[in-house]
Structure formats: C-alpha cells, structure tokens
C-alpha cells in the first residue's frame, strides 16, 4: 500500500517509474488503492487517469463510469480530473465486520471502445470503536463462606475494531478480594473469570462494587467498563459477644419476686437468625435456677425466689447467649445481696445465778449472755441496756458477750426479787430489738437485828395480882428472813432492890409474854424496870434490847389512918373552945392519911355523931372542925364528935375518930368536967404510944433546933472570916429530902409514914420524918400547934 500511496503523491515528478509500475496493472487491467476508513466525503482516493494511463479526453469521451454490484456508491469518479473521490462514509466495520482484509471491488467502464478496469480499494481499519459490554452491570451473590479460588465467570467485552485496534486486555478494580483470570479459548476469544483471593466478610463489607475494564490496543487506547456488584451472603460465622465479661448487680435482700436485677446483652453481628441471640442461665450451682431467671429474648435478669443476706452474701450466675446457629458466649453476673435489718438480736443466756446473797459486793456477776445479730454492719451492731432503777449494770466483755453485774450492794429487806429486763437493740434503721427478763432472788443474810416495836415499854399491873399473871407482851420484828428473822426473847439479868429480876417476872422466849412471878404490893414497890433482849436465829445472832417499865397500880387495900387527934388509953386529948368563940372558930383539924394513892387516898371527912346538934361541922376536904354558930351557955362543956374519914376508892374504906371538945373559958373548968369524961371514953391503946412519940419528937426537935442554930452560927462566923470581903449570901445546906417536904399532898405524907413503919430503923427514920410532918401541919394552921402545945403543958 505504501508504494502506491507514494506513487500517487509523486506521480507528476517520476512519470516513467509510475508508468512502469502501473503498466503491470494496465496489463492486468486493474488498479488497487488502499485508504483508511472514515475518510471525509470528497477525499481523493487516487488519480485513476494517471494511474491507468488514460487521457482525460478519453475519459470524458468514453464516458467512464463506475460499475458496482452494491447499492451504496461509496466512490465517485471525477472524469474531468480523472480522480476517484469518496462519495459516501466508508465504515470498515459495517462494510466488512471481522473480515480481513476489507476491500471495495468495482469496475471502471469506458465506451468507445469499451474498456473496463478493475479497481480494488482496500479499506484499512482505524481505532474508531471502543470495547463494550453488553450489560451495564453484573450482579453476583456470594456467600461469605466461599472458598479461596472460587471462580466467577464474567461477561466478555466486544470491540468492533480488528487487529491491534481490537480488544486487547481486561482489568479489574479493586482487587482486594478478587483477581482476574483470562482463558484464551479456541476461537481466540478470551474467557474472563473473577477468582476469590481473600475471604469475604459480610460483617465488614456486605456489598462489593468492582469495575471490569476492557481495553483495546489502539492509539490512543479505548476502553469499556462494566460494574460488578457483589452481595456477600451471611453465614453464621460470628458468635454472640456479651457486652461485658462480668455484670454486677446489687439486690436488697427480701426483695419482691420479679425485681429486675440488670439486663445482660450480647451482640451477634451475623444477620437474621444467625444474629438472633437468646439468653439462658447456665450456672450449675444448686439453687441458682430457683432464684434467678433471665428472659431469653431481652436478657432481663429477674428475681424469682427469695434471697436472704444471712444465707448468701452474693451469687454468681453464669449466663449464656446463643444464636440460632448454635454459636454461644458466656458471661457472669455477680449479684451482691444488700443487707436489710431483718434480724432481731439473739440473746443467749449462758449462765444465770438464780439468787445472789444480799451482801454481795458490787460487780458481782449475776449472768453471762451472748448476744448475736446475723445482720451486717450497723444492722448487726448491738447494744444492750437494762431497765431503769435497778441496782444492776450490764457490761460488754468481748465479742458479743455481756455480763450482768451488781451495781451496788443489795438489800433483801428492800427488794427480795428483781425482774431484770435486758433489751438488746441493733443500730439499724429502724432498729430491731429483743429482750429477756431474768428473775433474780436476793438471798437473805442476817444483817438486821430484831427491832422492838417501841423504844421502851411501860406496863401496868394492879397490885395484889395473882402470881403467874401475864402482864403484857413485848414484840420485836426482824426484817430478815426465816431463821434469821426468828426472834426469841430473853430477860436480861438485873436486880431490883437487891432482888434478882428473874424472881419478879419471866419472859416467854417464843411469844415475848411477860408474866408476873409474884404478887406485887403497890405500897411496897410502885414500879420497876428491866431489859428484855430480842435475839434472832442467825449465825452469828443479832440482838437488841428494850427497857420495860412495870408500874404497879394501886388498889384501895388500905383504910385511912387518923394521925390526929390521937387517943391512947392513958391520955385524954380535948380541944378547948372558948365560949366567946365566933362562928367559924377553928376547933381542931382531923389529920388522916391513906397509904394508898390517888383516889384511894383522897380523903373526905364527915361528921357522924355530935353531942350538941349543929354546933360543929367538919370540912369535907380538909378535916377542919369549926363552930357553925355562937356557943351558948346552954351548950355542954363536954362535946364529943365522931368524924368519919373515908377514902375515895372503890369500894371505899373508912376510919372513924372521936374528937373531944371542951367548951369552957378556963382550964380548971375543963378538968372538972373531964374527970368523969375520961372514964366515959373508950380506952385507946394506941394513944399512949402516940403521946410518947409526940413527946420524944418535940424533945428531939428542940435539941435539933439548938444544934442547927449553933452550927449555923459557927458556920457563918467561919464563912465571914474566910470570905472577909465577900458580900455573897450564905446559903445553908439542907439535904434534898428536907427541901421537898414543904410540898403538900397526900403522897408526901404517905411516904413519910412508910419510912416510919420500917421496923428495923424506926427511930433513926423517925428523926428525919417527924419534923416534916409537923412542918406540914404547921404551914396549914399555926393555931393548931399552939393548942396542941398547950394541951401538953
Ligand atoms: C417479777 O415478775 C413476776 C412474774 O411476772 C411477778 O410475779 C413478780 O411480781 C415480779 N416481781 C417484781 C419485783 O416486779
Ligand atoms: C442494850 O442496848 C443498848 C443500845 O440499845 C446497848 O448499848 C446495851 O449494851 C445493850 N445492853 C445489853 C445488856 O445488851
């Protein structure tokens, strides 16, 4: 082709050479051109006239024309210029397809003479077509479990161009998972395959987009592409995975059934059923399945039983998650049980003393107990307290042990029994508590002496009692118990007037009854006292004593005794009343005593019998005999009065006395009257005695007075010498007995009388008592003494 083109271009310059060349064609009557396809219309293909060696004239005249068997006239012969031009678009691919070489064949015919020439125009290929695929995209669905090396046939591309302009190669992009493999087939075409080089992972890339490019060999190269869309199909290649290795939850004990603990969760990145996770408890530990439940669909763990902190403080639950393909994962749920103050403290008495002696020192241990609370922390911290106002305390020893000890000394006599309530409470909120009550007996110790009901006793007994009479009862009580409180009474030894008290009274040891052992005479002993001891039965025994005073009560067992006027057989006493005496003239005074006392000695005087009626009367109380009217001449000289002295006892006792009264103006008158008067009257035996006694007393009084006066004189003289400058009054000393004697009253006289009666010491006692008697009388009436003395003279 090249030489012919060069020919055409250089034809005018080297005519000979062209001729020689074309000659051979002429000989064969044909020419041959070669042009590329797709030349513009009018493009010159070749100079036919020149190449065929024909004259333009000949062409014109010969009416040269192109004869072709085809419908489309691609070329046109310009006869005026003798050139062949393109008249229609020439597409090699349309004209020849894959056939090579591709050429147009026609004849140029001339007339006059008819000549024809064969013309062949070879159409050469240009790269005007790019490779192409029949589809825009190719879809694959490949399981992610596809093995390496798996092949997937791809669509091949087409290129209308031929030769080097035809399809040359393929490329695949990206090549992460797949590589391209070409097989040259028998017809020379290529089979394109995609080979899996790296496993697919749906979980990473579910959709893969690749581009297959087909490239031809033209210059420039042209290409066509097709999209490859790979959908990776899921395989259960992923197990579920828990979100945590260990789940933690805390649960308050005694929570209600159905309480949600936590939600466990596992993810499975697989799809569909392969990713559908169900949960279960796989723990094999006994009891777990009765307590907890996991919802198999949503992983919520709930309580279905009852949890008690005191039984288990935590639980470990193994939980399994499984997908439908059978892959699984496991995790743990650790449930901490939170304590609730649901247990009362437990009080366990380890030892108790049932009783404690009352003299036990403080801190004596009564009981030991252990206190325990199964709750934890402050819910299990226990404090114990005792009830109020009891002499005990509670002491915490160690480790939940408490001892109950006495706080102070006990006194059985105040409280013989204690109910000690021990209350132990924990520190939870709200606090729980338990309590126990111990009953402790306080045992007796002999710490109390018997105590008499009174500080001292006074008892009365009427004289002349029968021996053996019970006077009264002393009683002592002992606050102790039983034997320690058993009181016995003992009479303590003492003497009364030199006589053992035990001969007066006795005391019954058991009952404390005091008996008189003899008959008492009030006039002999008015009272006496002794001590009674009360002693308990303790060891050692305790005792106390009490003074008992027995007062003997008077009985009217003595009649009054008239002391004055005294009648003896040998003497006659008469009172002299002058006839001139006024009304109310005191004649005499009857003096009587009664050794009894009180009412029994309260004397009253009555006139029983008088010679002259209504001349004298006797004072009811004082025994004074007075005139009640003027004495007249008619009244006899001799008057005889009988006075009854009566005491006030029940029954009363009495004595009578005769009083002789002489109504006269002179002593001789009296004497003459009384000579026979004396014989008339009764002889009184006692009178002599009294007269002698009176005389002796008067004498004695006189001597005593003298002695006293002299003594006092001497004493004063000596005192004035000693107390030379002193003006101190000098007080004479009188024995106490004398000092008392001025008091009036029956008792005083009785006492005096009594002393006189003491037979052994009559004289000496009378020496002291007589003056008292007379001074007493004297104080009452001085007239009496005057008359009395007169009579003796
Ligand atoms: C102690 O309790 C007992 C029984 O409850 C009761 O009989 C007794 O009187 C109580 N003692 C005291 C001192 O409260
Ligand atoms: C009698 O009791 C008193 C105290 O009350 C005591 O001083 C005295 O010693 C006791 N007498 C006897 C004999 O026990």
From TrEMBL:
UniProt entry tagged with the keyword Phosphoprotein: no
Parts of the chain that traverse the membrane: 687-712
Keyword set, alphabetical order: Calcium, Cell adhesion, Cell membrane, Glycoprotein, Membrane, Repeat, Signal, Transmembrane, Transmembrane helix
Coiled coil: none
Gene3D superfamilies, sorted: Cadherins
One annotated GO biological process: homophilic cell adhesion via plasma membrane adhesion molecules
GO cellular component, one term: plasma membrane
Annotated PROSITE patterns: CADHERIN_1 (PS00232), CADHERIN_2 (PS50268)
Lineage, top ranks: Eukaryota, Metazoa, Chordata, Craniata, Vertebrata
A GO molecular-function annotation: calcium ion binding
Membrane topology: Single-pass type I membrane protein
Stretches assigned to the Cadherin domain: 77-133, 134-242, 243-347, 348-452, 453-562, 577-674
Function: Potential calcium-dependent cell-adhesion protein. May be involved in the establishment and maintenance of specific neuronal connections in the brain.
Subcellular location: Cell membrane
Protein name per Swiss-Prot or TrEMBL: Cadherin domain-containing protein
Keyword Oxidoreductase: no
PANTHER family tied to this protein: CADHERIN-87A (PTHR24028), PROTOCADHERIN 1 GAMMA 11 PRECURSOR-RELATED (PTHR24028:SF296)
A Pfam family annotated for this UniProt entry: Cadherin_C_2
Main localisation: membrane
């Amino acid at each position: 082709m090249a030489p012919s083109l060069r020919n055409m271009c250089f034809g005018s310059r080297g005519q000979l050479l062209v001729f020689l060349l074309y000659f051979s064609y002429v000989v064969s009557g044909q020419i041959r051109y070669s042009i590329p396809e797709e030349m513009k219309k009018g493009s010159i293909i070749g100079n036919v006239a020149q190449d065929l060696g024909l004259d333009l004239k000949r062409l014109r005249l010969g009416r040269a024309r192109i004869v072709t068997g085809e419908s489309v006239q691609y070329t046109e012969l310009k006869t005026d210029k003798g050139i062949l031009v393109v008249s229609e678009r020439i597409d090699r691919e349309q004209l020849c397809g894959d056939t090579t070489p591709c050429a147009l064949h026609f004849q140029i015919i001339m007339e006059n003479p008819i000549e024809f020439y064969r013309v062949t125009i070879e159409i050469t290929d240009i790269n005007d077509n790019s490779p192409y695929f029949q589809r825009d995209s190719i879809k694959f669905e490949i399981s992610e479990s596809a093995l390496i090396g798996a092949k997937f046939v791809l669509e091949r591309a087409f290129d209308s161009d031929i030769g080097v302009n035809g399809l040359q190669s393929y490329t695949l992009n990206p090549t992460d998972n797949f590589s391209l493999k070409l097989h040259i087939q028998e017809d020379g075409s290529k089979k394109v395959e995609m080979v899996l080089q790296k496993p697919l992972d749906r979980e990473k890339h579910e959709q893969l987009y690749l581009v297959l490019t087909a490239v031809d060999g033209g210059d420039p190269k042209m290409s066509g592409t097709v999209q490859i869309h790979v959908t990776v199909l899921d395989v259960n290649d992923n197990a579920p995975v828990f979100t945590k290795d260990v789940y933690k939850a805390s649960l308050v004990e005694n929570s209600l059934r159905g309480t949600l603990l936590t939600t466990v969760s596992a993810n499975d990145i697989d799809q569909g059923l392969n990713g559908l996770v169900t949960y279960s408890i796989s723990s094999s530990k006994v009891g777990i399945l009765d307590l907890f439940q996991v919802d198999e669909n949503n992983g919520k763990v709930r309580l279905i039983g009852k949890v008690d902190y005191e039984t288990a403080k935590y639980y470990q639950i193994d939980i399994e998650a499984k997908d439908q393909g059978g892959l699984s994962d496991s995790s743990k749920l650790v449930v901490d049980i939170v304590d609730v103050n649901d247990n009362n403290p437990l009080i366990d008495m380890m030892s108790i003393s049932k009783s404690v002696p009352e003299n036990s020192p403080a801190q004596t241990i009564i009981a030991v107990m252990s206190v325990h609370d199964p709750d934890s922390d402050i819910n299990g911290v226990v404090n114990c307290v005792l009830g109020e106002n009891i002499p005990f305390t509670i002491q915490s020893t160690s480790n939940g042990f408490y001892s109950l000890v006495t706080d102070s000394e006990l006194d059985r006599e105040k409280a013989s029994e204690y109910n000690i309530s021990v209350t132990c409470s924990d520190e939870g909120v709200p606090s729980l508590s338990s309590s126990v009550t111990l009953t402790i007996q306080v045992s007796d110790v002999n710490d109390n002496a018997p105590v008499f009901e009174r500080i001292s006793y006074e008892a009365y007994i009427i004289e002349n009692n029968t021996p053996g009479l019970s006077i009264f009862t002393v009683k002592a009580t002992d606050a102790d118990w039983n034997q320690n409180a058993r009181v016995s009474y003992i009479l303590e030894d003492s003497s009364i007037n030199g006589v053992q008290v035990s001969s007066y009274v006795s005391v019954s040891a058991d009952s404390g009854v005091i008996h008189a052992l003899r008959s008492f005479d009030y006039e002999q002993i008015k009272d006496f006292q002794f001590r009674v001891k009360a002693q308990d039965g303790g060891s050692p025994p305790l005792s106390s004593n009490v003074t008992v005073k027995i007062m003997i009560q008077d009985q009217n067992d003595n009649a009054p005794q008239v002391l004055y006027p005294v009648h003896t057989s040998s003497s006659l006493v008469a009172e002299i009343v002058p006839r001139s005496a006024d009304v109310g003239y005191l004649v005499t005074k009857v003096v009587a005593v009664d050794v009894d006392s009180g009412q029994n000695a309260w004397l009253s005087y009555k006139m029983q019998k008088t010679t002259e009626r209504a001349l004298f009367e006797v004072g009811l109380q004082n025994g004074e005999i007075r005139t009640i009217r003027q004495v007249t001449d008619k009244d006899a000289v001799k008057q005889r009065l009988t006075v009854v002295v009566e005491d006030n006892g029940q029954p009363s006792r009495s004595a009578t006395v005769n009083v002789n009264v002489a109504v006269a103006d002179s002593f001789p008158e009296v004497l003459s009257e009384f000579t026979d008067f004396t014989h008339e009257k009764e002889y009184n035996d006692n009178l002599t005695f009294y007269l002698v006694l009176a005389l002796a007393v008067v004498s004695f009084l006189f001597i005593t007075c003298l002695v006293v006066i002299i003594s006092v004189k001497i004493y004063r003289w000596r005192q004035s010498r000693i107390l030379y400058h002193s003006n101190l009054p000098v007080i004479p000393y009188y024995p106490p007995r004398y000092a008392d004697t001025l008091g009036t009253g029956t008792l005083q006289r009785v006492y005096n009388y009594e002393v006189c009666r003491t037979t052994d010491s009559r004289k000496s006692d009378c020496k002291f008592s007589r003056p008292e008697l007379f001074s007493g009388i004297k104080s009452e009436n001085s007239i009496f003494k005057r008359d009395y003395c007169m009579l003796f003279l």
